[in-house]
Amino acid sequence: MTVSIPELPLLTLSDDELALINVLRADMLRDRYALLLRDAYFNGEQLVRDLGISIPPQLKGLHTVIGWPRVGVESLEERLDLEAFRWADGSDSSDLAEIADANDLFDESSLAHLDALVYGREYLAVGSGDCGTDDCPPLISAESPLDMTLMWDARLRMGTAALRECQADGFVESGPEERMIVLYLPDQTVTALPSPSGGWEVVDRDIHNLGIVPVVRMANRQRTADRVGKSEITPEVMSITDAACRRLMGMEVAAEFFGAPQRYILGASESAFQDAEGNAKSAWETYIGRVLALERDEDGQVPEVGQFAAHDPTAMTRIIDLYARIMSAQFGLPPHMLGYTTDNPASADAIRSTEAKLVKRSERRIRRYGAAWQQAMRLALWVRDGEPPEKARRIETVWRNPATPTVAAQADATVKLVQAGILPADSDVTLEMAGLTEGQRQRVVADRRRAAGGSVLEKLAQLGAGSDARPSPEPDRLPVDVVADGDAGF
Questions:
Q1: What is the spatial distance between Cα 431 and Cα 440, in angstroms, rounded to a whole number?
Q2: Number of neighbouring beta carbons within 10 Å of residue 227
Q3: Low-confidence stretches of the chain (pLDDT beneath 50)
Q4: Which pLDDT score, from 0 to 100, does residue 342 have?
Q5: Distance CA 107, CA 100 (A)
Q6: pTM of the model
Q7: What is the pLDDT of residue 282?
Q8: Cα–Cα distance between 250 and 455 in angstroms, integer?
């Protein structure tokens, strides 16, 4: 006898879904402190630990900030410029450009890269468009790990479930401070709000039946034993930042105590520290007196006046320069980017050579992040078309060169490759190697097509002018060079 079990209503979470939500929320909350700590260092809001030795209690509220973590992270992120998506086989990529433009990915990508470098990971969530039409482009959104987590299968190298918890904006039923959760599963995406009676109340189920979770993790500095990723703000970076902040605070304390040189008077009488009315002067009034009149003592001796050596901050600045050099090694940055300077300025070639490590790190991030963007774009096409794209058609991401070669050097190298016959002069690769951006390359291609079309019309006009001397050729039997130009131009 077969007993049929009724399915749960769409507005109810199953026991498995509730258990999965609890596991994912616990995972997200467990890492939040570490993520917020990196965020504080990036924003210059960290609290420097006082060693309780050199800082007096009156100055413990003094807060000094040094922005090296931000400089190091942003210097790497500024070299990660996503420019375009294209098909590797050279076919028309307008469908990819439409999805990218609809989601403003070329601006959003910089935010995703920055979060991935600061937090160690970022998530790209893909879903159906909500514009109300059938041809609505799919949505691709970058999500912070502060609000999202992913359950990962290391063997399959793919996610099995994901959870996003955020502000419940856009729902009429939600209050101003109410939270919502979005559970991403291989077959559906579930959106739920807190229920007045406790638990969660489902407000939407997007049944997509993709077979995979439509969430891509953009991980930074992965290892085989740690696929989640690590932040660029490492414990070493935080330790050096704290040490440099303490040295800056020490300079502030020294400026308060020793900014004005200390003086001493030997053999002075008590009247030297009194005003005309016989009242004792304050220490500050005595110090700032421009004219210090002292009388001889009973033995006729003149009091001796002297001054202690003023505080020299050179030792502190040398220590900070040392920290800057250590920090530059941690981030792979030229020391001058962190404020460390020498008397002899480096040449342009020397500066570019010091950027070699930074350029290599950027290229590694481009490879890792490019794979995540390609996977997100394939998921977007899958959501739009209802079937996965052909595996034979590979998506490529186009990035700006992370190095800083001169325009003359790029043009010279490109010309030599063309002259050697390695690259055709009209190839898009040639334009890319010459340093042109994606928009500039598209304009060059459009100009070439217009020029080719103009040459075809000119040849057709010449043929028409000579039609009195000989019969005009049939349309399908034009001269070979005219047909070739027409095919190239249209």
A1: 9
A2: 15
A3: 1-9, 172, 174, 176, 290-291, 475-490
A4: 63
A5: 10
A6: 0.76
A7: 62
A8: 75
Please say whether the beta carbons of 166 and 180 come within 8 A: yes
**Token pair 């407000």 in the structure block, residue:** 203
Per-residue pLDDT at 485: 42
Residue 424: per-residue pLDDT = 79
pLDDT for position 348? 67
Q: What length does the chain have?
A: 490
Q: SS3 string of the chain?
A: CCCCCCCCCCCCCCHHHHHHHHHHHHHHHHCHHHHHHHHHHHHCCCCCCCCCCCCCHHHCCCCCCCCHHHHHHHHHHCCCCEEEEEECCCCCCHHHHHHHHHCCHHHHHHHHHHHHHHHCEEEEEEECCCCCCCCCCCEEEEECCCCEEEEEECCCCEEEEEEEEEECCCCCCCCCCCEEEEEECCCEEEEEEECCCCCEEEEEEEECCCCCCCEEEEECCCECCECCCCCCCCHHHHHHHHHHHHHHHHHHHHHHHHCCCCEEEECCCHHHHECCCCCECCHHHHHHCCCCCCCCCCCCCCCEEEECCCCCCHHHHHHHHHHHHHHHHHHCCCHHHHCCCCCCCCCHHHHHHHCHHHHHHHHHHHHHHHHHHHHHHHHHHHHHHCCCCCCCCCEEEEECCCCCCCHHHHHHHHHHHHHCCCCCCCCHHHHHHCCCCHHHHHHHHHHHHHHHHHHHHHHHHHHHHCCCCCCCCCHHHCCHHHHHHHHHHC
How confident is the model at residue 352, as a pLDDT?
73
